[in-house]
Amino acid sequence: xRATAGLHLDYLSPAEYQSAxxxxxxxxxxxxxxxxxxxxxxxxxxxQVNTPLLLGxxxxxxxxxxxxxxxxxRRNRVRFRRSENLLFGCIALAESEVAPATPAAPSxxxxxxxxxxxxxxxxxxxxGYPYLLRVWNYLxxxxxxxxxxxxxxxxxxxxxxxxxxCGRAVRGNVPAASxxxxxSGSPLVVYFLAARVAPAFLENPRQMSAYxxxxxxxxxxxVFSRATLLRQRDALTLFxxxxxxxxxxxxxxxxxxxxxxxxxxxxxxxLLEEANRVERAARFSLGSLxxxxxxxxxxxxxxxxxxxxxxxxxxxxxxYLQADICRQDLLVEIEATGxxxxxxxx
Length: 346
Ligand code: 3EB
Fold this sequence. Notes:
This protein has about 350 residues and is an alpha+beta fold. It has one domain (about 10-340): CATH 3.30.1330.40. The chain is built from 5 helices and 21 strands. Helix 5 links the parallel strand 18 (about 290-295) and strand 19. The protein is globular and about 55 Å long. It starts with 7 loop residues before the first strand and ends in a 5-residue tail after the last strand. The structure holds 3-(2-carboxyethyl)benzoic acid. 3-(2-carboxyethyl)benzoic acid binds near residues 177, 178, 222, 244 and 326.
């Protein structure tokens, strides 16, 4: 058993997951279909994300554990599980299930996104976990246009509307996030972690805050912080948003997968430095992260893997998924989670 009571992330094979204790599991994400039946299965919220694992990489579950007793529930379409301090939740909405387009919600994706975010906020308000730490968003056909507007831009508009309507910030104190393309035909899937206490909200000195991006990237800016930092009694957790080869607000190294990967790692290193500056007790380093790598073109996997091998510790936890990244010129995106004990534990 673990000695600390803090939040933990594990990437487990299905067999490891089946034999692991589940009482303190808050939630799970899978990437290639529903999870195999396992003890406690009915209790655990599972976000079924449709971003396939890359060929040659073994099936994996992303497992979030609280280290504390947990309780499950459901509110409308949000499934959740919570400990005293933390809540994991997920919602999946097919665009065909939501009300048809209206002037206020001009596409089915807009309607689905607004509904998902309104349900998430209502759940957090009702249960008293007001602070979103981290949100993962997966939408099918992220680059397709409908009504002349790219779907990622429709998503951004709807996310911003819904958060405003729920009385939440749309810049500054906003959660860390990822937003990726899922396979065609998938529902919109959103999963999240929230807390009773506020995290620190971090920006990257090398990048413009995403919520201040100029309008050339869309009429409504993406609402996310570059990272959030949660302080619990005996550990710090750093949630690093999806990070790509963007400096300022521009995509750089267009067409060069290796250089994009190195720039992304430089951006992540800058965020780690920022976290260590803001929280003096923190000692985050590249070697201690769990990374989720989104690869646009499966054939780029060896190049990306080689860059990560050169930069990360040999035992780093890394998983590779195929996904479209929200700008067409980006070939790779990396999100990461860091854990740092605050004092030596027995
Ligand atoms: C970027 O830096 C790349 O829309 O929630 C990264 C993380 C990106 C989150 C989001 C988008 C989002 O702008 C894209």
